[in-house]
Design a protein that fits this description.
The protein is α+β, with helices and mostly antiparallel strands and 471 residues long. The chain has 14 helices and twelve strands. The radius of gyration is 43 Å and the shape is elongated.
């Protein structure tokens, strides 16, 4: 008898109307029937094969579900967890024993189950009775109490004629972090574009400020110089009045002397020179800032140009004054004999600005008073190179951080106060763009000195400087 014949004979063999729908049911039924041994053996073999296939299918389905990254749970109508996959256990940091038979509410921070009930209510369209799924994002909670952003889909599912729900969820922490990072990058880009626009406008603004400041300075100088002549004439007039007081009408000199006292002329004669000199100093400082801003923001070309490093440093110190004046004093030790060297001037501006601002922030972190903080900027000519040293008496660099100082995105500053890009960009500008070197010396709680060595000739393979010299 063939297998097909055995299968065809099966309904006749299963006497008594016994219903057998699965391997287990068939095996139980086969144990109760009377049949020839050959048919019985073949039938048992077929039942065994069916059981094996069922186990394979079950195992295959379990493997597939456990390989899915999303957590999957079957929840009955009362909210009890009936089954789940491996990812559900991992996401919720649970064990199978903890989840099986427990309330699904443990994964929702909203302990009043408002969110879950809202999801369940939306799973069935009341007007049409149509079953559907619903999706939302919310904050969930692991069994160890840690919270995380969750994306969850709830859909109706019928198992064994009982109403159940399928919960499919995932941990979207990485996605949320990526969205936050993307938003931060977009904000930084907008800020950079705004600063770039300001940079383009700075030259014109500097010119507009420079024109009125020029005649203000000239007028103050004129007043300062004229005051000397007027004070001398006034002194001579007083001497003349004093010598001839007996020949003047009665009380004339006394009345004049009283008016001088009432107008506080002596005080004005003493303070006016100080006031005009202070105004001259102030307008000269404005003019210096404007000129430094104009040179600092001047758009550089694609090629290197011969540059006075002392002047670049002087401009950067003026431009960055607001960053360091509340924390330190700056001492300039410039070698007047250093040669002009080929540079991308805008990039070198950025290098020195980063180093000076970092020095000021280090002093601030160290908690020093403004009269205790010290930044020294020094230039030295070394054969065919120039050495620029920027020292501070700030916190210094901890030993474990020294090897990471020039790494991208490394920072010891608080969140929101540093991107960790400044020194990385500085290192790239000095070494790659200019063929130079940058290194530092540091002592914890005593300070740090950054050294920048720039070559006196182009070592990056760019021949534009040689062409410029030849022309």
């Amino acid at each position: 008898m063939t297998d097909d014949q055995v299968i065809n004979e099966t309904p006749k063999i299963l006497s008594g109307g016994v219903e057998a729908t699965s391997g287990e049911d068939l095996l139980e039924a086969a144990m109760e029937i009377e049949a020839p041994e050959e048919i019985r053996v073949r039938f048992m073999a077929l039942i065994g094969e069916q059981r094996r296939r069922e186990q394979e299918t079950t195992q295959r389905l379990k493997t597939i579900l456990d390989s899915v990254l999303e957590g999957i749970m079957i929840v009955d109508a009362t909210g009890m967890i009936q089954d789940f996959n491996k990812s559900a256990v991992e996401i919720l940091r649970a064990t199978g024993d903890e989840l099986l038979g427990s309330s699904v509410d443990v994964m929702f921070i909203d302990r009043k189950t408002t969110l879950r009930h809202r999801l369940l209510n939306r799973c069935i369209n009341i007007s049409t009775g149509v079953l559907k799924y619903d999706y939302t994002e919310t904050m969930a909670q692991r069994l160890d109490g840690d919270s995380f952003p969750m994306e969850i889909i709830v859909s109706p599912a019928n198992f064994s004629s009982e109403m159940s729900y399928l919960y499919i969820f995932r941990d979207i922490t990485r996605r949320k972090n990526a969205e936050t990072s993307q938003k931060k990058l977009e904000e930084d880009l907008r800020e950079a574009l705004k600063l770039e626009a300001i940079g383009h406008l700075a030259g014109g603004i500097a010119h507009e400020i420079n024109t009125p400041s020029q005649y203000i300075r000239d007028n103050l100088k004129f007043l300062n110089d004229s005051y000397g002549a007027l004070s001398r004439v006034l002194g001579l007039a007083l001497q003349t009045l004093w010598k001839n007081r007996n020949h003047l009408p009665q009380n004339t000199f006394e009345v004049f002397a009283k008016q001088m006292r009432d107008s506080d002329l002596e005080f004005m004669l003493e303070e006016i020179p100080h006031a005009t000199q202070q105004s001259l100093d102030g307008i000269n400082q404005v003019a210096r800032i404007v000129l430094s801003m104009k040179e600092f923001s001047h758009p550089g070309g694609a090629e290197k140009t011969t540059t006075d490093i002392n002047r670049v440093l002087s401009n950067v110190i003026v431009i960055s004054r607001n960053e360091w004046k509340h924390h330190a004093q700056i001492t300039e030790k410039f070698d007047p004999e250093i040669p002009h060297i080929p540079c991308h001037i805008n990039e070198i501006n950025q290098v020195f600005l980063n180093l000076i601002v970092n020095a000021a922030q280090s002093i601030q972190t160290a908690g020093r008073k403004p009269d205790e903080g010290d930044i020294t900027v020094k230039t030295t000519s070394l054969d065919d190179s120039i050495l620029i040293s920027i020292s501070d008496n700030g916190t210094g660099i901890e030993k474990e951080n020294r090897s990471k100082v020039f790494n991208p995105f490394f920072t010891t500053k608080e969140v929101g106060k540093g991107t960790g890009q400044g020194l990385s960009i500085t290192h790239d500008i000095v070494t790659v763009r200019h063929g130079g070197r940058i290194w530092f010396e540091t002592q914890v709680n005593k300070g740090t000195t950054f050294h920048v060595l720039l070559p006196g000739e182009d070592r990056t393979g760019n021949t534009s400087v040689e062409k410029q010299k030849a022309n």
